[in-house]
Amino acid sequence: MYITCLDLEGVLVPEIWIAFAEASGIPELKKTTRDEPDYDKLMRYRLAILKEHGLGLKEIQATIETIEPMEGAKAFLDELRSLCQVIIISDTFSQFATPLMKKLGWPTIFCNSLEVAPDGEITGYKMRCEKSKLTTVKALQSIGFETIASGDSFNDLGMIGASKAGFLFRSTEQIKKDYPQYPAFETYDELLSAIKAAIV
Q1: pTM for the complete prediction?
Q2: Which of 8, 63, 125, 178 would be 23's cystine partner, CB 3.0–4.6 Å?
Q3: Strand, helix or coil for residue 4
Q4: Which domains does the chain have, with CATH numbers?
Q5: 3-state DSSP assignment of residue 125
Q6: 119 tagged catalytic
């Protein structure tokens, strides 16, 4: 039995932090896991910028409400879910993801959570588990599932490499160059065809 594990941002929806960087006029917040492999370092950097500018959860959630899934993402997800089980495994946070899951038809998502003060300041974050994407894929395999995985960033490489089939999707030229062993696709039709071939 197969489960396809998908990244969220950059694969199904635009990058939340890039959208917020543009909405807030703070270009430093455009840095993502495509640019910084160390997630803890990246989040500490982001939280320091938010604190400096007096911005909190409410402001980010207001931006998230305006974000729409990428064109074709919901249709892709619907068709994929008719073929096999699908779990979105993301390093985003439950406080960010809920409005986006509604727009995608409520798929299953495993993600992390933010620590938020009563005044809305984001004071920290709690990871669901260490190396959450790779750990989750290995846990699924341990209970009898074959996994297929796709993502676009450094933090997706572990689950892609550990799966029966793994694909880069709309990744950076540098990641594609550094990891030529993983097929790289730009369209949902290409990715769906590759997943179908893997689960035959």
Answers
A1: 0.90
A2: 63
A3: strand
A4: 2-12+70-112+126-199 (3.40.50.1000), 16-64 (3.90.1470.10)
A5: strand
A6: no
Annotated catalytic residue within 7, 15, 91, 156: 7
Dist. CA 194–CA 189, nearest whole Å: 9
Answer positive or negative: Cα dihedral of 91, 112, 128, 52: positive
Average pLDDT over residues 31-41: 84
Summarised one tens digit per residue, pLDDT across range 66-120 is 999 999 999 999 999 999 999 999 999 999 999 999 999 999 999 999 999 999 9
Residue 130 has a pLDDT of: 85
- What is the chain's mean pLDDT, rounded? 95
Contact 7, 156 (CB under 8 A): yes
Q: Cα dihedral angle (171, 177, 179, 181), rounded to 10 degrees?
A: 110
Locate 111 and state its tokens: 């993600």
Residue matched to tokens 């980010």: 60
> Which phi and psi (to 5°) does residue 148 adopt?
-120, 140
Annotated active-site residue in 9, 15, 91, 152: 9
